[in-house]
Amino acid sequence: MSTVKITGIGGRQISVQTGLFINNEFVPAQDNATVKTENPFNGKVLAHVSAAQASDVDKAVAAAEKAFNGTWKSTQPTVRRDLMNRLADLIERDNEELASLESVDAGILFRESSGMFVPQAVETLRYYAGWADKVDGQSLHIPQGISYSRRVPIGVCAAIVPWNAPLMITMWKLAAALATGNVLIIKTPEASPLYGQKLGQLIVEAGFPPGVVSILCGLGTVAGSALSAHPAIRKLSFTGSPGVGRQILAASAKTNLKKISLELGGKGPSIVFDDADFENALQWTAAGITVNNGQICAAGSRIYVHADIYDKFVKAFSERTKDSVAGDPLLQETTKGPVINAGQKKRVMEYIKIGQDEKVKVLHGADDSKLPTEGHFVPNTAFVDVDPQATVIREEIFGPVACIAKFSSEEEVVRLANDSCYGLGSAVFTKDINKAIRVSEELESGQVTINMWGLLTQMCLLVVSKRVDSVVIVARRLSTIGHRRNTSA
């Protein structure tokens, strides 16, 4: 297979192979099918990566079945643990290369990838490696004797990964599968597949047996559909849009009723009470909608601020977020990289236009004329005094577009926050611990963070979740089915 060199941070040359990763080898797709991946900063072609067809999925499944039924399912948990820790060490060693690939392939700021997404991938692997030799069943004395349960591997699993934080989300799926003795076929996103090509090299270096992990780039309508409908795949985990989630559920229902985990859209509310630490709330609400250009399913895109501090907050939020240094995401001075592609830019700008057409007041942004014309840049935008029925506050935009509204009471803000078809993540800012817990329990959201946004850092004061056995990400409504990053994953 061919190898391409990608220029990363500081001019470093990163070599990646372009084939499908099956049986610990890089091989061409059927009929040499490929997809083109481009740098969203300048539109230049980075590589032509093999695009898996249905027959290639069959080959990956066959390799996975052979690995699972051969030795992997009976491999000692301590061996799986050591392999996972070795992979974590290698990812940590190659942080700069992996972060560079995410920057040039997905437009993610290098400092965000190297400082947050890659370390989170390492942390996830090490967390699940620690569970590999601790998964057990239960026993119960009954009149007839003793009844007991065992936890056994499912077998061949599949994961379909999105383009917005691909390495980190891959590890959320891969680590749980490996720790419990399963084998996994990963479909990397066609818009940002290069991290997966590098990951395949590290899988081999870590010492995993052939077939335990397969990595296939490919179109969702081809490779994704083949994985969803394949009768030998026992479980599939998908992160992406609700529409595609429905298609995957339908494919499972029509074939082998494989287990399905879905992590779908979000329209996360952040609630800022008048007794909140003002600077802390400002810092996290700004980050919650600008990190990765708001291209995060749990982005804090709805911001509800108490009436007593509303005007002060709106002014400070605008000062904090309206200006940015748009440019090459590899450069340290850049604070705004491009969105993933022209289609995503068009989507975000169309939503901004819808907000303007609906007479929603623009605080700042909405105009991309001052941004670089080369590349796919969109402006940080904030709407204020947003009506609860406005399109921009109800639909997921997946871009750096904040909607700010005021509230006067706990009851009112809980009602506003819950007035959504989504239920992925939310945040509450207050110094009153009783209020924090009271409101968090009323929010119809799988994840509630207190005095911070998201769970990608250790800086939280308190994390409240709908489960308490670990740091859990679950969700409600249209946002998800299943669990991730916990013992139930």
UniProtKB/TrEMBL annotation:
<feature type="domain" description="Aldehyde dehydrogenase">
    <location>
        <begin position="27"/>
        <end position="453"/>
    </location>
</feature>
<dbReference type="GO" id="GO:0004029">
    <property type="term" value="F:aldehyde dehydrogenase (NAD+) activity"/>
</dbReference>
<dbReference type="InterPro" id="IPR015590">
    <property type="entry name" value="Aldehyde_DH_dom"/>
</dbReference>
<protein>
    <recommendedName>
        <fullName>aldehyde dehydrogenase (NAD(+))</fullName>
        <ecNumber>1.2.1.3</ecNumber>
    </recommendedName>
</protein>
<dbReference type="InterPro" id="IPR016161">
    <property type="entry name" value="Ald_DH/histidinol_DH"/>
</dbReference>
<dbReference type="Pfam" id="PF00171">
    <property type="entry name" value="Aldedh"/>
</dbReference>
<dbReference type="InterPro" id="IPR016163">
    <property type="entry name" value="Ald_DH_C"/>
</dbReference>
<comment type="similarity">
    <text>Belongs to the aldehyde dehydrogenase family.</text>
</comment>
<keyword id="KW-0560">Oxidoreductase</keyword>
<dbReference type="InterPro" id="IPR016162">
    <property type="entry name" value="Ald_DH_N"/>
</dbReference>
